[in-house]
């Protein structure tokens, strides 16, 4: 064991002597004016270079959309699904680029101007197929667009006032089927749930109620419709009514209370232009 320790110590001393001798030679060359060997710096690869290059290749492969294509893509991916979510069937989930019926466009513009958050009630009446529901869909489409545009902005760039909700479309027969237990002469174990649903309906910025002519139970129709219209009128929220009746028949079937509301902050609009369905 003593011999091994002696050998190890000797080897360490020998290594130290070699290092000292090498250092002395470097000093001698420096004193003699010899230039020291240049230090070679190795370039360390930047990990972000590869990421940036890959991202550039991805961007190069993305097809740039024209403004018209971008608008169409936005409608199909963001607006049309929301039109379906608020009740519009697939055939009405379209974006009008240009109206091809002047009276229909004029009616749309009239409704848009009349709905000014005062609880207006407008009734579109006339024969089937003239596009009354289509007008309702475009009014809600515009509100969805405004709603999306607001939340697409950065918070600091948003207007002080948030846009109204997106609206809702429903047939009167569906509303009656849903809320009948609240207005019938018998109770329901789901009364509280139905009251919450009715409250939610009466908070929508624009409620479009279609096919007022289809309800056979006139007494129940008056109960449901009058109550919903009164609640929305009190909340200063706009309502659009749609019926295939003539104006005279509509006035007789709507009831005095609703008719009074329409007279105060709305209007009955007769859609008398040619039916689309007849022309096909």
From TrEMBL:
Annotated SUPFAM superfamilies: P-loop containing nucleoside triphosphate hydrolases (SSF52540)
Domain AAA+ ATPase: from-to ranges: 118-272
InterPro entries: AAA+_ATPase, P-loop_NTPase
Name used for this protein in its record: AAA+ ATPase domain-containing protein
């Amino acid at each position: 064991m003593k011999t091994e320790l002696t050998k190890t110590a000797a080897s360490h001393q020998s290594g130290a002597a070699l290092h000292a001798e090498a250092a002395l030679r470097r000093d001698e060359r420096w004193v003699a004016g010899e230039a020291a060997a240049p230090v070679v710096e190795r370039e360390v690869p930047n990990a972000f270079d590869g990421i940036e290059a890959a991202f550039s290749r991805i961007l190069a492969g993305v097809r740039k959309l024209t403004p018209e294509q971008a608008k169409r893509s936005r409608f199909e991916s963001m607006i049309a699904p929301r039109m379906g979510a608020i009740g519009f069937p697939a055939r009405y989930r379209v974006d009008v680029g240009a109206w091809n019926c002047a009276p229909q466009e004029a009616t749309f513009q009239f409704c848009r101007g009349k709905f000014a958050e005062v609880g207006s009630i407008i009734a579109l009446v006339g024969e089937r197929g003239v596009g009354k529901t289509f007008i309702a869909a475009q009014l809600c489409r515009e509100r969805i667009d405004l709603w999306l545009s607001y939340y697409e902005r950065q918070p600091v760039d948003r207007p002080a006032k948030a846009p109204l909700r997106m609206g809702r479309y429903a047939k009167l027969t569906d509303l009656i089927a849903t809320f009948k237990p609240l207005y019938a002469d018998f109770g329901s174990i789901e009364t509280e749930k139905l009251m919450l649903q009715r409250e939610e309906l009466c908070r929508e910025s624009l409620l479009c109620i279609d096919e007022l002519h289809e309800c056979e139970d006139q007494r129940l129709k008056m109960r449901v419709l009058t109550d919903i219209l009164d609640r929305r009128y009190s909340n200063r929220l706009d309502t659009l009514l749609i019926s295939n009746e003539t104006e005279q028949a509509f006035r007789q079937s709507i009831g005095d209370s609703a008719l009074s509301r329409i007279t105060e902050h709305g209007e009955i609009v007769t859609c008398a232009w040619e039916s689309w369905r007849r022309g096909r």
